[in-house]
């Protein structure tokens, strides 16, 4: 039984390593880039670096995500798989400035 558990664990490792990573930076209460393109139909890892001295909260009704972004840290948010479209996100503590959109694109034919 223990051998089976190790085999399952080892087989699951490559799936985690294959997640595509995308980066956002929060600085001066603004997200950079404010438009982030990701592929449709794939789960991705979003790494959000908070360069502000205060916490912010990543919030998105469209993505069904809410996460406190601690200052001076890289925060991980998993999103997807998503259908093609636009998904708005914002900083709950700075909603007028910390705004952005995730653009989910379907692969082009022949790729």
Secondary-structure topology with pairs:
Blueprint: H1 2-17, E1 20-27, E2 30-32, E3 35-39, E4 44-50, E5 56-60, E6 65-69, E7 74-79, E8 85-91, E9 99-105
Provide an overview of this structure:
It is a single chain. The chain has 111 residues and is mostly beta strands. It has one helix spanning 2-17, and strands spanning 20-27, 30-32, 35-39, 44-50, 56-60, 65-69, 74-79, 85-91, 99-105. The strands form two sheets. The chain has a five-stranded mixed beta sheet, with no helix packed on it. Strands 2-1-4-7 form a four-stranded mixed beta sheet, with no helix packed on it. The relative contact order is 0.23. The model has no long low-confidence stretch (mean pLDDT 89).
Shape: globular
Give the radius of gyration: 16 Å
The H-and-E topology, N to C, reads as HEEEEEEEEE
> Major sheet: size, sense and barrel closure?
5 strands, mixed
Name the helicity range.
10-25%
Distance between the termini: 42 Å
Within the largest sheet, what's the order of strands? 3-9-8-5-6
What structural class results from the helix and strand content? Answer: mainly beta
Total helical segments: 1
Strand content: over 45%
Strand runs, count: 9
**Mean pLDDT metric:** 89
Contiguous runs where pLDDT drops below 50 for at least 5 residues: none
């Amino acid at each position: 039984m223990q051998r089976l558990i190790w085999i399952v664990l080892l087989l699951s490792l490559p799936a985690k390593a294959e997640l595509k990573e995308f980066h956002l930076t929060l600085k001066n209460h603004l997200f950079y880039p404010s438009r982030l393109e990701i592929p449709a139909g794939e789960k991705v890892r979003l790494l959000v670096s908070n360069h502000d001295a205060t916490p912010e909260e990543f919030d998105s009704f469209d993505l069904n995500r809410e996460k406190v972004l601690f200052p001076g840290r890289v925060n991980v948010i998993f999103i997807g798989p998503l259908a093609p479209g636009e998904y708005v996100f914002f900083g709950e503590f700075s909603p007028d400035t910390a705004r952005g959109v995730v653009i989910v694109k379907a692969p082009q034919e022949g790729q």
